[in-house]
Specification:
Elements (H helix, E strand, L loop, with lengths): L2 H11 L10 E4 L5 H12 L3 E6 L2 H13 L4 E5 L5 H13 L6 E4 L14 H29 L2 E6 L14 H19 L5 E6 L17 H12 L10 E3 L2 E2 L3
Length: about 250
């Protein structure tokens, strides 16, 4: 782990008086990029990790890497764009008596099709992954958090889909992330404050999506996600953050 990742893990462990070793975090799209590094930092902070990946082979490789670092990790095949896949994953975890305390809705895809060339099928493919998948995962895991009176949910959003920044992303991506932001607000309104539900703008991170254009490291982007995933009990809910500061939608 890099020095940035180690620092984030140490900071996360100190958050509040919560025993993070007793918490389980499910991270979607966790086989690479921000998702993988988020799982890594949460794991080094003490959490058990459910590493959710659409591709089992890539998921196995990522889980093996985390396991080699001492992270307690369970691999789950999960395609968030498929509602049945979400339900099946939730059923397997219930059967295994795995209680998800922290849900990081990270999985997402990007499309660059211009608005006047956009086909319905393309739009729905992006929307099902970036927005509906998040809704389905939230419906699958938040109710049990409410029953246990504790939970953390983080929506990995983007500045490219915020009205305050001019919705500068390509159409599909920007619209899906704007809808994700709205979903965050509505879920938080419908959920007791014991379950913290927030969205985060991790920044333009050097992942496969951004390539060499990325300005922040993956470790830095994940650190912003982890902060919300490990909020103390008096932390905020229903907000949108960049770093540790509230941001405009």
């Amino acid at each position: 782990m890099t020095s940035t990742g180690k620092k984030a893990a140490r900071s996360a462990r100190k958050a509040g008086a919560i025993d993070w070793s007793g918490k389980t975090a499910l991270v979607t799209g966790a086989n690479r990029g921000i998702g993988y590094e988020t799982a890594r930092q949460l794991g080094h902070a003490g959490c058990r990790i459910v590493l959710a990946a659409r591709d089992p082979a890539l998921g196995e490789e990522a889980a093996a890497q985390l396991g080699a670092e001492g992270v307690r990790v369970r691999l789950e095949r999960l395609d968030v764009s498929d509602e049945q896949s979400v339900k099946d994953c939730a059923a397997r975890l219930r059967q295994a008596r795995v209680k998800v305390d922290i849900l990081v809705n990270n999985a997402g895809i990007y499309d660059r099709t211009p608005i006047f060339e956009l086909q319905t099928e393309t739009f729905m493919t992006v929307f099902r992954t970036n927005t509906l998948g998040t809704l389905w995962c939230s419906q699958a895991f938040i109710p049990a958090m409410v029953e246990r009176k504790w939970g953390r949910v983080v929506m990995v959003s983007s500045g490219l889909g915020t009205f305050s920044r001019g919705m500068l992303g390509h159409p599909c991506y920007a619209i899906s992330k704007a809808a994700l932001n709205a979903l965050t607000v509505k879920l938080a309104q419908a959920t007791p404050d014991c379950v913290k539900i927030n969205a985060v703008r991790p920044g333009w991170v050097k992942t496969r999506l951004a390539g060499a254009l990325g300005k922040d490291t993956v470790e830095k982007g994940a650190e912003r996600v982890v902060w919300l995933a490990m909020l103390p009990d008096d932390g905020p809910t229903g907000g949108y953050f960049h770093g540790r500061r509230p941001s405009r939608w």
